[in-house]
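User: tokens in, sequence out, please.
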């Protein structure tokens, strides 16, 4: 009778355990783990595991201890109880080890494991009954339940189970427009440049990138025929006089077109890990600089909506806004980092997660400690590492890394975070960097976002960021074209400079490279950021250009475009095939002028000498030279405009306004505002 009661108690405990696991895996779970004591992170896993493991080990040890050797005819024989106890104890351990080795070496052996398991249970049941070891049957039941629950957890976790309510809910937010194009990876704005000028600070040269500037505008891509492929480049040429030297310059534009309809566009299921900087620097106000190696904190203007907010507050609100774009069959995890990293939330299907509670936890986060980029990034990678082997046609793996980019602990060299990001890209884990505040270090991020599948945004207003993500989130996490290479064959021309691609410095006289193209919106037959400009050097009168394109789709399949011939027949100055290339040339010259100004002013300050101006009326707008300012730390320098550059800006402003009128894009007026401020400063 006592034995039956024991069995009943064990059976009830097992039923409770099964119910617990089924509830946690199929119900809405608040699996937020972050506390200031990181040892508590995995307690929610350890406790239920102990509940299962303890009775299994207890029964096994009980049989081993009770199974004293049997003495018969003066000889010892192994007690069947001990044999059964050892078998119950070792079989799951050996099975787990063999499974792990099989996955790493010979995956096909996994198919043999069910046969081994069935054979073991048949033998164990017969042996227990034959030798009247009833409690061993309880141990076998526990092992079976462990196997069933483990298998159920794995199936639920990887199959995207979200319950019947999720069926048919996946749709594209972007199906209202009939067409789409492409923009390159890398920077998606030049907000840091504009905000620095507005707040009377001299920007860094990396604050104004060509691709970031282009993404602020829509371009006529010069598409002459309907695209029916994933990617269809179009080509246009121009002969344009330099606004200062009035020398003719030759340009070629590459329009980034797609045959994919927005109504057909659907991003893949997303395995998303957000890595959030919670270091002490995030406590500084959105209306302050806090980056300088000299410790300067200077008030700057800020929008009324974010007045008095800290960077952490804006970052929290931005993350919560991002989560609103996830579908039930996406997976979401979160890592926090200061001097160390903490897994705040393990990766789990959104449909199985209590997202309301998770958002509340995020809104409660407070900043503290130092900054260790690599610790946070490695922890985020660890959550996604298992997903690098899953079906890439169905899933997209992405880390969104939010920081104010002020490292002061750990490896802050380019090889640190840069190497980790590149390794992840090679394993199909891509990264988006989001900079918080006006002191966001574009010098560091510019290097990182040249990597396959990477891009970055800056946040200067929580409301502005929310609006932007409403329009762009689906595109931000869905790179479609990789490793684009354009080859130019021409006796008369060679590539002098590429504008609008983070990989511009990798170009040669015959080859242009672009690591990643992301989908981009179209309006009124123009594509946002949908152009790359090539400045050509004329070496002979031969005007024929032969252009070929090779690239990879997101499955890794190599694709080739048709060879295109472009004949430069026009000889008159200021000829433009369309407004797209005209706008691209205007913005490229604007960015060149601004970069030269920043370089020359900073060099003058560094060497404490009178400024030597790179741009002259004789030489025109020259291609700026990259300068090294030191490892990743920014130097806050008050805005400075020499008289020489004020004269150049005045002359350039006339040209800019004339071109703006010819192009017919009033949005260009925001650059006019910048130029006018620099003239009057």
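Assistant: Sequence out:
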């Amino acid at each position: 009778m006592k034995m039956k009661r024991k069995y009943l108690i064990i059976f009830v405990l097992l039923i409770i355990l099964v119910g617990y696991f089924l509830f946690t895996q199929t119900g809405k779970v608040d699996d937020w783990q972050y506390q200031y004591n990181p040892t508590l992170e995995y307690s929610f896993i350890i406790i239920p595991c102990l509940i299962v493991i303890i009775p299994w080990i207890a029964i096994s040890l009980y049989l081993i201890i009770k199974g004293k050797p049997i003495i018969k005819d003066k000889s010892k024989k192994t007690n069947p109880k001990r044999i059964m106890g050892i078998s119950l104890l070792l079989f799951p351990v050996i099975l787990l080890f063999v499974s792990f080795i099989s996955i790493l070496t010979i995956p096909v052996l996994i198919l043999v494991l069910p046969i081994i398991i069935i054979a073991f249970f048949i033998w164990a049941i017969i042996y227990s009954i034959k030798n009247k070891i009833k409690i061993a049957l309880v141990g076998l039941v526990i092992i079976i339940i462990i196997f069933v629950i483990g298998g159920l957890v794995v199936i639920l976790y990887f199959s995207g189970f979200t319950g019947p309510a999720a069926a048919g809910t996946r749709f594209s937010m972007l199906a209202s427009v009939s067409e789409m194009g492409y923009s390159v990876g890398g920077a998606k704005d030049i907000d840091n440049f504009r905000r620095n000028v507005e707040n009377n600070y001299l920007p860094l040269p990396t604050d104004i990138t060509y691709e970031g500037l282009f993404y602020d505008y829509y371009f006529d891509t010069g598409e002459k025929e309907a695209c029916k492929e994933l990617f269809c480049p179009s080509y246009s040429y121009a002969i344009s006089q330099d606004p200062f030297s009035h020398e003719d310059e030759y340009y070629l534009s590459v329009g980034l077109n797609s045959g994919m309809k927005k109504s057909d566009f659907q991003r893949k299921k997303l395995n998303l890990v957000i890595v959030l900087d919670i270091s002490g620097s995030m406590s500084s106000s959105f209306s302050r600089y806090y980056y300088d190696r000299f410790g300067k904190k200077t008030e700057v203007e800020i929008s009324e909506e974010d007045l008095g907010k800290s960077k952490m507050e804006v970052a929290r609100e931005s993350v919560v806004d991002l989560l609103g774009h996830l579908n039930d069959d996406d997976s979401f995890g979160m890592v926090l980092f200061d001097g160390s990293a903490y897994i705040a939330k393990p990766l789990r299907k959104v449909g199985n997660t209590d997202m309301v509670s998770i958002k509340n936890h995020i809104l409660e986060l407070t900043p503290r400690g130092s900054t260790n980029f690599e610790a946070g990034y490695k922890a985020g990678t660890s959550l996604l590492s298992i997903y690098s082997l899953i079906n890439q046609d169905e899933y997209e793996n992405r880390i969104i890394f939010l920081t104010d980019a002020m490292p002061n602990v750990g490896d802050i060299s380019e090889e640190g975070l840069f190497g980790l990001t590149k390794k992840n890209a090679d394993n199909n884990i891509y990264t988006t960097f989001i900079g918080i505040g006006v002191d966001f270090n574009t010098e560091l991020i510019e290097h990182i976002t040249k990597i396959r599948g990477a891009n970055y945004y800056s946040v200067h207003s929580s409301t502005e960021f929310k609006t932007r993500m409403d329009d762009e989130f689906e595109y931000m996490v869905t790179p479609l074209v990789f490793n684009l290479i354009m080859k130019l064959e021409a006796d008369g021309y060679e590539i002098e400079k590429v504008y609008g691609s983070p990989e511009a410095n990798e170009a040669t006289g015959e080859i242009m490279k672009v690591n990643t193209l992301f989908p981009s919106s179209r309006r009124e037959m123009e594509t946002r950021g949908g152009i790359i400009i090539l400045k050509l050097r004329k070496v002979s009168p031969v005007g024929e250009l032969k252009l070929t394109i090779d690239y990879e789709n997101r499955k890794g399949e190599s694709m080739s475009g048709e060879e295109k011939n472009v004949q430069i027949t026009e000889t008159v100055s200021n000829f433009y095939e369309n407004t797209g290339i005209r706008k691209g040339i205007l913005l490229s010259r604007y960015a060149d002028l601004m970069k030269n100004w920043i370089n020359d002013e900073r060099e003058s300050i560094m060497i404490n000498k009178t400024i030597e101006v790179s741009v002259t009326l004789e030489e025109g707008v020259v291609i700026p030279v990259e300068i090294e300012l030191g490892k990743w730390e920014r130097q806050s320098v008050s805005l400075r405009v020499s008289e020489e550059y004020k004269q150049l800006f005045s002359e350039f402003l006339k040209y800019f306004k004339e071109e703006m009128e010819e192009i017919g894009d009033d949005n260009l007026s925001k650059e006019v505002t910048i130029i006018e401020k620099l003239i009057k400063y």
